[in-house]
Amino acid sequence: MNELRTRVAIVGAGPAGLLLGQLLTAAQIDTVVVERRSRTYVEQRVRAGVIEYGVANLIDDAGAGARMRAEGLVHHGVELRFDGSTHRVALSELTGGKTITVYGQQELVKDLIALREASGAPTLFDTAATALVDLNSPAPSVEVEGPSGALRITCDFVAGCDGSFGLAASSPPPGHVRRYERTYPFSWLGILAEAAPTTKELIYARHERGFALYSMRSPTLSRLYLGVSPTETLADWSDDRIWEELSVRLSTDDSPAVNVGPISERSITSMRSVVIEPMRYGRLLIAGDAAHIVPPTGAKGMNLALGDVRELAAALVSALVEGDERRLDDYSRRCLERVWRAEEFSNYMTEMLHPIDEDEFENAVQRTRLRQATSSPEAGTVFARNYCDLNSL
Ligand code: RFL
Ligand code: PHB
Asked: Which mutation among 51, 200, 202 tests ligand 2's pocket best, with the greatest number of atoms within 8 A of CB?
C-alpha cells in the first residue's frame, strides 16, 4: 500500500471538511482531504441555503466570503403563514440588526474547493476512506481506495467530516458512543425551479394539507419544499401535482401565487434528528452531519457543521502549534451544548409546522405555538435569535 503523511487527515469534502481544511491551511497546518465522490458531484449537490449571521462572518474570516457577500441574498425577516394569514418575524429588529444570507451550499463548496486548489493543499476526489485505524495511538491513519489504488494516510489527527452515512460515526468500538435518534412521520420533497420568486423573504407555511416552504437562490431561481408522506416517492409527484400543491399551501387571499417554471432538480429527504456523544474517540474528531442530523425545518444543518469546525480548527491549532490539548479535550462538550440547542430548535420548528392527520390536540398545540411566536415579543425574540444566529450565541 502507498503511504502518505500529513498532520490532519480530513474525511469528506462537504462544507465541514472543506472549511476545516481552509482554517488549518491558514494556520500553516498540512492537511489531506479525501472525498469519495467526484468534484463535479460535490459542486452540484443542491442542499442548504440559509447561512446564519455569525456563520457568514466565520466564512468571511476564513477568507472564503467574497462571492457569498457579492451574490448572497441578505434577508432581514422571515414569514410564518398559518390559518390563512401571513405573519412576519422581523429578524433584524428583534436581534439588534442581525440578518441571514441565502446562498446555496454548493456555491460555498465551490468557493472552498477553489481556495484549496489555489493554496496547493491536496484534495483526493473519487477516493473513499475504507478504514480509520489506530485511533488511540499518536499516529492514527486513514486507509483509502482511489483511482490509483489503495493508500494509507498517516497523521496526528483524523477529522471525520464524512456526513450522515460516513465511516467516522461507526468507527469507535461498541459502547464508546451513545446515539440519540428520532424519525419524523414526514419527508420533504424539494425542487429547484427556473422561476422568479414571488416573495422577497422565506415563507414557512403550515397548511391543513401539509407543510410548504418558499425559498430561493437568486432573483431567477426558486427553491421550494413540500411536506410529504414518508412512503411517497418522486414517481408519485408529477410537475403539475407539485405546482398545484405548492400553490394551494402557499397562497393566501392577499398574496400573489407561486411562479411556475421548469424544475431543474428534485429530491425527497426523510426527516431525522440524530446526535452521537461524544464527538471524539481517541485521535478521531467528528464534526458536522457525521455527528448529528437535524430536520431541515430550522435551516441549521450546515450552520451547525460550520460551527463545529470553528471549534475544531481552534482546538487543533492549540494542540498542533502550541502543544496544548486542553481545548481538544473540551471539543465534544463545547460542541454538544450548541448541538442540543439546535436539535431543540429544529424539533420545535418541525413539530410546529407539520400538521398531523386526525390529531386535533397536536394540531391545536401547533397553531398556538405559531400564534405565540408571531404575537408575543418575547417569544418572537427567542425565535429570531435562534433562527438568525444560534451557532454564535
Ligand atoms: P456533507 O455535506 O454530507 O459532506 C460529507 C462528505 O463526506 C463524503 N463521504 C466520504 N468521503 C470519503 N470517504 C468516505 N468513506 C465518505 N463517506 C462520505 C460525502 O460524499 C460528502 O461529500 O456533510 P457536512 O460537511 O457535515 O455538511 C452538512 C450539510 O451538508 C447539511 O447539514 C446541510 O445540507 C443540511 N441542510 C441545511 N442546512 C442549513 O444549515 N441550512 C439549510 O437551509 C439546510 N437545508 C439541508 C437543507 C439538507 C437537506 N437535505 C437534502 C438533507 C435542505 C435539505 C433538503
Ligand atoms: C433552502 O433554501 O434550501 C432552505 C431554506 C430554509 C430551510 C431549509 C432549506 O429551513
From this structure: 202
